[in-house]
Task: structure prediction
Amino acid sequence: MTTTRDRHRKTRDDAPSGFFEAEAAGLRWLGEAESRGGARVVRVLDVGSHHIDLERLHPSRPTNQHAEALGRGLALTHASGAPAFGAPPAGWGGDAWIGRQPQGNDPSPTWGIFYAEQRVRPFVRRALDRGHLDPAGARVVDRVCDRLAAGDFDDDRTPARIHGDLWSGNVVFTGEGAVLIDPAAHGGHGLTDLAMLALFGCPGLDRVTAAYEEATRLTPGWRELVPLHQLHPLAVHAASHGSAYAAPLVDAARTFS
Result:
């Protein structure tokens, strides 16, 4: 990585084809909502096959006001919508990634089918193949995926325009407010972004969540569904970071199996 006065360059010599272009498309797609009050997104200055140049951000201490503005902005970004669950960012039709791990972005008829088949099961299989998750634990998660695919957790919410990898490290608080970076953007369920913020912590999380809840309509009892939306990031980490994430993954799944 290289940082100058006005830009931050991320590089990867072994980047798969489209790796940085997909990130740029996601940032631009999320950024379209800013004019309607959506969350602030880092600006893309240039992109190539092995790099992306972004505006340089100047981190600052988070404030309660910035946390509340993030919650309201995130609600408006989600409300900007997507063509379908699993839809990729506008202008992008290639591969997708979360961090350095590949994942699908194929439009699906329901959220449950998309979430089970493109977000949870593929990473459970990787974790199992790598010895990070045992077969008994994988079966627990698979039972939840069966329920997801059957529509047990679908609601009447239309596809949201979500960040998709919204842990605290991808929220940069500056003097002007929170800025989103490094998305895995797609059409999904808005609760997924909130669930990831809750999983890994975020400054002012209570205020972010309260402002979001005030700005949008959430399903009654939505807090009970947060662990369901955490299955994806937990499975991702079980696949990439090891068995320490297997127990939290299986524990979250048991709530719904």
Notes: The longest strand covers residues 7-11. The two ends are 43 Å apart (CA to CA).
